[in-house]
Description:
The chain has helices spanning 31-36, 56-66, 88-102, 132-135, 153-168, 183-192, 218-223, and strands at residues 16-17, 43-45, 49-52, 108-117, 120-130, 137-144, 173-179, 195-204, 207-217, 230-232. It has a ten-stranded mixed sheet, with helices on both faces. It is α+β, with helices and mostly antiparallel strands and 247 residues long.
Amino acid sequence: MTGSGHRGQDPHSGERATDDDVQPNHGGHDTALVAVWPLLGLRLATARLELAVPTSADLADLFDAAAAIQPPGQARFQQSFLYASSPERERGLLQRHWRALAHWRPDSWDLHLAIRLDGTAIGVQSMWATDFAITRTVETGSWIGLAHQGRGYGTEARMAVLELAFTHLGAAEARTAYVAGNLASEAVSRKLGYQDNGHKVSAQDGERLVQHLMAIDAATWKRRSRGPVEVTGLTRCLDLFGVAAGS
Length: 247
């Protein structure tokens, strides 16, 4: 496996991985559920944010955050359900969350994490992979409520999952995409060290959609200076990611 392993500490990052023998903060999930589905106990903490699989309280916060994700009149950069009226928008959010958990397999997973600021969920950071044990490649996406945009939270949340991917899961490459015109998303990717990786064209809501692709590899990530990320509750999740413990 590439990368430094799930208990290593990178001198560039200042990240720490706590011993799972110490009881982690389950972030509001029932301990009995965490014992069966340890992803519910996974937690990433940065200087200002905490990322975790959403609790019921987080989902309620996300209903509020999703009510406004872009200024009126701006081109749509996110998934269609986020622009639906209530209650279709909230139902779409719930279905995405439940689907990610229900369809999870070690060879096809989609990690949806609530982005918490001072205990309140303000958006979602996702990371997904197919055949990760072979490809060592992840993809990411995110959204943050309009009221909390422009303060660096998106960069910090992406940094957290990239640290999880490269330093703890042994990823070789991370990919992302942004819709043409989404300058904020492009800026986050370039700030974190991504490079251009082509583009793709598809149809969405009856319109032509151009997405610009970007990628960053493990060697580039390792060289970059970045803020601290504390990861707890990971060891018991490794098999769910298709990663062998101690790799």
